[in-house]
Amino acid sequence: MSDMGLFLKTFFSNISIMLTLMYVASLIYKYTLYKLSPNVKEILFILLAILCGLTTMHYGFQFSETALFDLRFMAIIVAPMFVRHPISILIIGLGIGAARLSFGLSYASFVGCCNVIVMSLLCMLICWWAEQRNWGFYRKMTALVLWINTANVVIIAVFGVIPSSEYLLEIAPGTYILSLILSFGFTLLLREFIMEANRKWQLHNYNIKLKEQYHISEEKTKELQLAKLELEEKNEQILLASRYKSAFLANMSHELRTPLNSILVLSQILEENIDGQLSDEEIRYANIIHSSGEELLHLINEVLDLSKIEAGRMDLDRSEFSISETLEQMSYTFQPIAMQKNIELVIESKEGVPAIIYADGQRLQQIIKNLLSNAMKFTEKGTVKLSVYPIRDKKGIVNGTELMADWLVFSVEDSGIGISETKQPIIFEAFYQADDTISRKYGGTGLGLSISKQFAALMGGFIELESQEGLGSKFSLYVPWEEITQSQGSEEACAREEAYVKQEPPII
What we know:
Blueprint: H1 4-33, H2 38-58, E1 61-62, E2 68-69, H3 74-78, H4 86-101, H5 107-132, H6 137-159, H7 164-272, H8 280-311, E3 319-322, H9 323-341, E4 344-349, E5 356-359, H10 361-377, E6 383-398, E7 401-414, H11 436-442, H12 448-458, E8 462-468, E9 472-480, H13 481-484, H14 491-500
Parallel strand pairs: 4-6
Antiparallel strand pairs: 1-2, 3-5, 6-7, 7-9, 8-9
Helix pairs in contact: 1-2, 1-7, 2-4, 4-5, 5-6, 6-7, 7-8, 8-12, 9-10, 10-12
């Protein structure tokens, strides 16, 4: 019984058997059992742990015909690493205890059976204690190894068939230390085995998810390709419809302008009444026909302009443009209207404004006319003011892009009805009126501001609105300073530019 070689042989054979069984079980699990539910896996581990205990007892060290020494308690130590329910540990202990009794009924087998059951209860208690204290893996397993090995020594010394003095003095010192070392070693090996198995399982799941994502991406790619084809077809249809619309509007414009021009000419002749054959009432009728025809012609022009902008066919004719002449023309056009409505019209050009700029004069005048026309229309009393001035380093949004630049500003401010904050964002939409009653009371189609905004964008600028309902509005057209103060290569234009625009715009 003092032969340590036999003890070592018993310990290492027990460990080797357990490792072999665990490796075989891992292979079976890897290729056949990994898809099973967690409860089934736990039942299979319980059976494996009982089998390990039975096998180690079969190859244990035989002290006598009834006394048997082995490492059956190792299955109890490692059980918490694999099972989720504490009762499973007790089932493993009961199973190994029953297996001990299968070697023959005796006092030694009864003590061995009780020993493994007590150790399983102790393992359950330590696991519960560790969970309450939030212990980590290594701290919990250290406590299990120390307490279960110590309990094994105490139970054998107190209840075993080997005399206590002989066991504690000759056997226990070597077997206890060796058992601790092997228990720690076996636990760490299983720890690495579990972590490796988990890594492989995670990698397997990751590969499955990658395949699923790949299939999903392929399906989405096909869907995107189909959507792209549909969009291309719809785009072709839209372009075709746009061409049809442009052709229709061009043809309708020609067909409408011809009789409309005749109406305008004839109504003007009748209005002039050179022969003096018409009565005052008939002259008034001719005047109404002429003014209505002009309004209709203006509406046709606006619709055509809007159509050209939407179709991308609107080109700017950039040339020399006199601001002072434009201001005089605006005064000549709108001063009679202001006098008729008893409104004060103020037109001013502030310091730093160049006399000559390079822009599409027709479109620029059209924007200013639209803004002044709206201001006159919606102002019953007070003032309408047109101001031209430069401004430096102001942020503006041009075609959706925020831009910090220098600008030349054409501002139209009135003391009219104003626009509420809720309706300001949509006031520039085509055919939009701020109120249904406005079109009935003031007239108009709602195209002027929409066309003005798009003309401003074509020039590289924008229109800014400041308004308060009941207190008037201020529309400001910003055109880029650098664009309007650069000629297109004419020597005469360059000379005029040097004379007029060498000064930088002041900060307003």
